[in-house]
Specification:
The protein has helices at residues 9-77, 81-116, 123-148, 153-188, 204-241, 247-252, 259-309, 311-316, 324-339, 341-362, 366-393, 395-402, 410-422, 424-439, 444-465, 475-498, 504-531, 537-558, 564-568, 573-582; strands at 194-196, 199-201. By secondary structure, the chain is mostly helical. The chain has one domain (9-502). It has a two-stranded antiparallel sheet. Helix 1 (9-77) runs antiparallel to helix 7.
Amino acid sequence: MSERKKQSLLTGAGVLAVATVIVKLIGAVYKIPLTNLIGAEGYGYFTGAYAVYTPLYAISMAGLPVAVASMVSRNVELGRVKDAQRLFLISKKLFLIIGLACTAVLVLIAYPYSKLVGAPDNFISIIAIAPCVLFCCLMSAYRGYYEGLNNMTPTGASQVIEAAFKLVIGLAGAYIFMDKSLSYYNENAVNGALDFFGRSVSNESEALSAIYPYAAAVAILGVTVGSVASWFYLWLLYKRKGDGFTREELVNSPEARSPKELRKELLKIAIPVAASSIILNVTNMIDDFTIRARLNRALEVGGEIIKTMYADALTASQTLDSGISTYLYGIHGSVINIKNLIPTITLTLGISAIPVISKAWAAKDMKGIKVSTESAVRVTMMIGLPAGFGIAALSEPILGLLYSSTAEIIPIAAPILRTYGFAMFLFAVATPMTNILQAVGNTKAPIISIIAGAVAKIIYNYIMIGNPEINIQGAAGGSVACYVVMVAINLYELIKTTHVKLDYVSVFLKPFIAAAACGGVAYISYGLLTGSSGLDSKLSCIVSIGFGASIYAIVLLLIKGIVKDDVEMLPKGEKIAKVLEKFKLLG
């Protein structure tokens, strides 16, 4: 009997989801105070570094682990455990080379790219995050290997460690840097004037503008340190516990194929998977480039319109005219933090589905593919729809709850967040669909869908953001257009490849009905609590979220939106299913 920890699709996803929630809570403790500390302009530098970093990060943390997990799970299903072990050794060497190359690329393009997008000081943050790619590549070999063995716990634990170090090092470092820099300015400025960080500043607003690029870089160093700590945990775990294969499994396994053959097969899967991940994350670079470029254009042709629109916020934040573009981009980045919360959680369903569906595909188990595919998409909808509708209904209160120290950004950020909320289900389901297609060997469709979506985004951003009367408010529409195209193509290809006919009532309609009730109740309850009762807006927001979530659960049960197959994949799922069946609450 194998000593390995095997987890079902939903159990594995549950492990990753718990880790993701912890990571996101840590991230909120990190990014929200960070935004309050370095302001929207400083956060614009932080976000700008991430935009150029994420395509390379996608190779290491999305593309490469998927390829390893898919190959390992198929080989284990076929009893070729020696192939799986040799594959792990090959992947470590290969990913080291890729990591070094990607880090070098990031360092080399840091300044030219920053200058190209009109934010030359951004190169400091890009340099600070560059080594992170190397350690993420090293991590991906371990994560992909354990995921292929249906053990999501190492990935989840390493994510929490990474986030914890990022929080402690990044936030503390930025706080100390801001404090020491401002103290130096206040002690040495003569009538407000001082040569400061290579600039000649004459007041505190100009001094802050000079500090922000460096403070953002210090904060980002926490991300790099976190990746080193996470890799070290995975290295130590494997050193101490190995992979759990029994002697019997190893004896019964055929001899491993040659390294050349395995390397060729790995690259055959990894290249298109990594390509789709890169192209998807290049949309972040497209956002960075097109949003900044079109905002600069909008300011050129209608700067007074924009300054009048956001006069209160620009005055409250002491933003200089030269920093308006970065300031608005930083506000969009603050909204992205909330928007990315749900897709990051549903991403775990895609990761967990890869070994399960890969094994079913290798065994030609079409029923298993249908059950797992429907379950992954349905549970994604059950999470993405209510969360999105709730965010849309309470966009202003949620921003007030999170960004109370920079409340001037709320009137600008709320419409953007509302748009993202209504489209949340698209963002949530895109990656799981991509992972399912990759698990069944269709690696071309995600690339096509992402390219088509990116084209839609570029066109939308160019037209809308360049209009001074729309400016940053057009950024959300570009993302929505991108994901509408992506999800439509991926859904078509998923049905075509697997011949799985989704139960649209169960997968989409029932979660939609319950989610609409959730959003409606949240919106109405917030209005009543803050209006007639005069309850504090923050407390009203929290209570309204609770009301909405409760109504969602009740409606979902009443319309039998929960399916037996999903429940049985959970720990002790059969017992839970029997209880729900007894009360006739399962679909």
